[in-house]
Structures are given as structure tokens and as C-alpha cells.
Specification:
This protein is an alpha+beta fold and 364 residues long. Helices cover 32% and strands 28% of the residues. 12% of the residues are buried.
């Protein structure tokens, strides 16, 4: 075990005693600079060091170094030990890990190693959106090389699911990935993200990057933009580098045509309904306005040399016959009009019961 490991262990063991004085005893009594994790103070003396650890040891801390480095000074009489550690804090079900960063300067004072500087801070969260966009840029830059092998090298060698934009295949290996990009890079693609979101898994070991991008494709005057949608899952491989384990890309569907607020769609009817429920054309007899019966004009009657009383009676009888004939014709015409009106009303009622719209109706 190295010296810095031994000294860190002695500090961690002192925390387990829950005695703040034991922990503070490891710090120098002079020329001290202590910047604790959860205190805003710059501590420079032993009393303040004891006060800080009085509260901190109640959290039941236990530290484990996850990454570190050492720089030696003063012919081995001092060294800087810095890196990352994870602290388990709390009790029972409430116990949880906290990732933090540390810097210790240990100096040999009168033959005993003491801490002259200690700076501890919670590890800042990683901005995964920046990580996602950096990896997308790496993928986009690989396309510009026109080298399908370089693009394919960004994809996982195992557990791959690739659903390309212009291929009907579900690609699951690097050989077919390379084959796809052999043709695609010849289109001179250049992608620009227009909208995206990131979902993080396993503390940043993997993430889903999804959204919209626009690709410029083609050459010269034939170069044109294509709007598309994307889903990437990037996962850290054994060497710590992110690889694409899933990639799904598709052309963005066109938006449906808007409907005018001034348009009232016409009822839609199937051909069968249109034929069988159509309003019948009115008969010519019903369509034409009723004509008044023509009154036959009789030729002037030659006066008969009969008594006036007899002649008047004959004229009256003839007029009665004509009136009866007129009444019969008017009655017949009225009945036809009534029948036609009832027929129209019945057809209109049937049409209102059809819940369809005419697909040929156009909204302006």
C-alpha cells in the first residue's frame, strides 16, 4: 500500500470513531487551509476544524477513492493527493452515495504526516445534452470523411439495432452498417439538429438522444434539405467511449392540410347512398306551374226565336257544366302538387339521416 493510501485510510478510519477531535488531530495546527464540502467557511485553525467534524461525523460517512493522482514535493516531505471519492452518508434506508472531489496536501511535520490543505466539493452534474451533441457532431464529422468504415466504427459491435432512413432492413451488425453508409456518404450528407431531448440512464453510462434533424443531400443545384426524425442510444463501451447501440431515422411526415374555418363540409355519401338516396328529379308535370284550364270559347250563339225565359234556362245549364269541369281539373292539379310535396319531404328526411361527408367537397 502506498503512503497516500495509508494516510487516506487513517483519515477515513478517524471518521468511523465519530470523534471530531480524533479527525481534527490529523490536520496541521498552523498554516492550515481547509475548504469543506458542506461549509461556506475557509477554515484555518483546529477549533473550527473540530466544529465542522462534530456535525459531519453524525452523517456516518465512509469514503472510497474512485480515481486519484499524486504529485510529490519537497524531496518527498510533502505531496498533493487529488481525485474523486464517493461517500456513503446517512443511516438505514436513507443511506445514499455522494460523488465528490478532493485535494489533500500532506506534509511531514516533526516526523508526523499532517494535512495542511484539504479541499472537498460535490461533483458537479454532467451536462448530458452537451455530451449528446458532441457525440452527434462526431458522427456527423465521420460522414464528411466519406469513409463508411469510420462512420460504422461509432456503432456497437454487439447488441446493435439500426433502422436507417432509406433502407428496409433492420441492421444488427457492423458489416451491414458499413454497407449502408457506403451508399449514403455518396449523397454528401450534412446533418443539423433542429430540436432534441436527452434521457439519461445508469448515471450517464447510457442515454437516449432523440429529436429532429435536417439533412442537406446532393451536389450543386441538386442539393436539397430533407427533414427527418432521429433516435440514438449511446452506451459506454469497455474502453469508456460511447458507442451507438440503437439508431432509428425516418423522414418527417408531411403535416395534414389545414381546414378552413369558413368551410362547412358537405355530407359524405357512398356511391350506393348517393344513387339510392338522391333527391329524385321532379316530374315535368309537377315542375311546371299549374295552368288554369282553358275556357273554351264558344262561337256566338244564334239567337233562337224562342221565348226569353226558355233561352235563359239553357244558358244557365251550360254554365253549370263548365264550372263543374273547372272544379275537377283544379282538384286533380292540387292533389298532384300535394303528392309531390310529400315525396320531397320524405327524401329530405332520409338525406339528413346519412352521417357522411362528400370527399369531393373543397374548402377554400
Amino acid at each position: 500500500m502506498h503512503l497516500w493510501q495509508i494516510n487516506f485510510k487513517s483519515w477515513n478510519d478517524a471518521l468511523q470513531t465519530k470523534d471530531p477531535a480524533t479527525v481534527a488531530n490529523l490536520y496541521s495546527t498552523s498554516d492550515l487551509s481547509f475548504l469543506p464540502t458542506v461549509s461556506p467557511e475557509h477554515i484555518k485553525n483546529s477549533d473550527s476544524t473540530v466544529d465542522y467534524f462534530t456535525a459531519f461525523v453524525q452523517k456516518h460517512p465512509f469514503g472510497t477513492i474512485t480515481d486519484d493522482s499524486v504529485q510529490v514535493y519537497g524531496n518527498g516531505n510533502a505531496y498533493l493527493h487529488s481525485g474523486m471519492y464517493t461517500f456513503e452518508l446517512g443511516e438505514g434506508d436513507a443511506r445514499a452515495p455522494v460523488d465528490a472531489r478532493f485535494s489533500y496536501v500532506w506534509r511531514k511535520i516533526e516526523g508526523v504526516w499532517k494535512i495542511t490543505h484539504h479541499h472537498s466539493s460535490v461533483r458537479p452534474g454532467i451536462n448530458m445534452r452537451n455530451v449528446a451533441r458532441e457525440n452527434f457532431q462526431k458522427w456527423n464529422d465521420a460522414l464528411q470523411t466519406k469513409d463508411p468504415k469510420k462512420v460504422a466504427s461509432l456503432y456497437s459491435t454487439s447488441d446493435l439495432s439500426f433502422l436507417p432512413t432509406v433502407s428496409p432492413e433492420h441492421i444488427k451488425d457492423l458489416d451491414n452498417t458499413e454497407d449502408y453508409f457506403t451508399a449514403f456518404v455518396q449523397k454528401h450528407p450534412f446533418g443539423t439538429i433542429t430540436d432534441d431531448s436527452v434521457t439519461v440512464f445508469d448515471d450517464g453510462e447510457a442515454y437516449l438522444h432523440s429529436g429532429m434533424y435536417t439533412f442537406e443531400l446532393g451536389e450543386g443545384d441538386a442539393r436539397a434539405p430533407v427533414e427527418a426524425r432521429f433516435s440514438y442510444v449511446w452506451r459506454k463501451s469497455g474502453d469508456g467511449e460511447y458507442k451507438i447501440t440503437h439508431h432509428h431515422s425516418s423522414v418527417r411526415p408531411e403535416a395534414p392540410a389545414p381546414t378552413s374555418k369558413f368551410c362547412t363540409p358537405a355530407p359524405l355519401r357512398s356511391p350506393y347512398t348517393q344513387i339510392h338516396n338522391a333527391t329524385p328529379a321532379p316530374s315535368a308535370e309537377a315542375e311546371a306551374p299549374a295552368k288554369e284550364p282553358e275556357v273554351k270559347k264558344e262561337a256566338p250563339k244564334v239567337e233562337k226565336k224562342e221565348p226569353v225565359a226558355v233561352a235563359s234556362k239553357a244558358v244557365i245549364e251550360e254554365d253549370k257544366e263548365e264550372v263543374q269541369e273547372l272544379k275537377a281539373k283544379y282538384t286533380e292539379t292540387a292533389q298532384k302538387l300535394q303528392t309531390e310535396t310529400l315525396r320531397r319531404i320524405e327524401h329530405e328526411k332520409q338525406l339528413k339521416e346519412v352521417p357522411f361527408r362528400d370527399p369531393r367537397s373543397i374548402c377554400l
